[in-house]
Amino acid sequence: MPNLPQTTPKLTLTLSLAELNVATTKSIGIFNYSVDLANQLAQAQGIERLAVLGNRTLDERLRSSPTMTHLRHDEAIRGKLRRILWDQWGAYAGARRAGTEWLLLPKGFASFARPCPVKLAGYIHDIMGEYYHEHYRGYEPALEYLYFARSLRAALRQARVLFTNSAFTRSELIRLAERWRVPAPPIIVAGYGFEEEKFTPPPKEHRILLFASKVPHKQTGRALEFLEQWLQRSRFDGQIDCIGIVSEGQRPISPQWNWIGRVPPQQGLEMMRRSRVVLYFSEYEGFGRPPVEAILNGACPVFSDIPPVREVMQDAGFGFSNDSADGFAAAMNAALKTTPAQLAVWSRQLLARHDWPGVVGRILGGLSEFSRSGI
To answer: N or C end of the chain: smaller count of CB under 10 Å?
Structure first.
């Protein structure tokens, strides 16, 4: 008999999103990524069946697909106790009932109360909890840290394969596993995906947009200090819009500052499109989405030049050292001179490097490899 061509069986996969709620999430970036990943997987050629464990708040965010079934589990967003029960029992039970080969946890935290009844994979965005435990001990509640540390350790022990957003996060995860003396599973850098923003560019205004936060690693105090120094030296006569939470005592009183507070994601994008420069301060990230989003929305980013953000941006935008007010000023002055043509070049480069087909291909390739190997 002639040799028949070998075909790779399509995957069956459960994706657990039931605990996600945009009204209560601590990270809108991780929320958006998780929902976008579900929609991208639903269109992928390599999946025979995708079961999404979701909730009522995701109904309008999940796109319909012949391969995707949205299974509602509203109990996961009904308070902290229900959330814990979901994490420790519900997600695994939902995957078992869905009857798929794989369960993918897009936030990476696994149950430490029971073994997973199907093949487990996780996506790790960062190890922020460990960073705070090392550098800002006491800022996060101790029980919360212990809970998520045990959940992350469970993911390292149980997962057949883990995915990360950057090579930096992969190296951090390997370092953590060595420190915990936990044998890490294979870890694949899947990356983040972005799509070209379709919009009619509004008129550019003489505005700078600052992302602010009360959490220490976002370095908002330093951002306000550097900006005040730059304003005094540069004679910039435009407006500085600050979105996010800043305590009253931190706020400069200059009329150039516009304190807005938290805004919905779409409003944030619209503000980017009207701004000339978007500022992003941080001392630790797993990836750092806002500088990419700034360029895709027609604004020049100025960002803390830390390893993961430089890995993501490469030559696009302008980085500065968190220890150098002069470096920040130089980055600001260069950003204000950046032309739309240069932003368009950077946009094409970033979309080519951080594309959804590549992300999905790396995830499905990893799952297929460890389906075949039986590891």
So the answer is: N
Q: Give the separation between CA 5 and CA 73, rounded to whole angstroms.
A: 41
DSSP string, 68-128: EEEEE-GGGGS-HHHHHHIIIIIHHHHHHHHT-SEEEETT-PPPSSS--SSEEEEEE---H
- How far, in Å, CA of 67 to CA of 195, rounded? 22
DSSP-derived 3-state class of residue 284: coil
Q: Which residue has the tokens 């009183």?
A: 253
Token pair belonging to 154: 């469970």
343 within 8 A of 92, measured Cβ to Cβ: no
Q: Give the count of domains, the chain.
A: 2
Query: For the whole prediction, is pTM greater than 0.85?
Result: yes
- In a domain, residue 2? The reply is no
CA–CA distances in Å: residue 142 to residues 23, 132, 136? 24, 11, 11
With H, G, I as helix, E, B as strand and everything else as coil, classify residue 340: helix
Domain match, 22 and 158 both: yes
Asked, for residue 198, whether it belongs to a domain, the answer is no
In DSSP notation, 170-209 reads HHHHHHHHHHHT-----EEE----B-----PPPPP-SEEE
pLDDT at 110 (0 to 100):
97
Are 64 and 81 contacting, i.e. CB atoms less than 8 angstroms apart? no
- Check residue 244 and give its pLDDT: 87
**Cβ–Cβ < 8 Å for 50, 66:** no
Which tokens hold the place of 297?
């929305």
Question: Residue 8 has what pLDDT?
Answer: 57
pLDDT digits (tens, 9 = 90+) for 99-152: 999 999 999 999 999 999 999 999 999 999 999 999 999 998 999 999 999 999
* Residues 222, 338 within the same domain: yes
The H-or-E segment that residue 313 falls in is: helix 307-313
Q: Are residues 344 and 366 in the same domain?
A: no
Same domain membership, residue 287 and residue 152: no
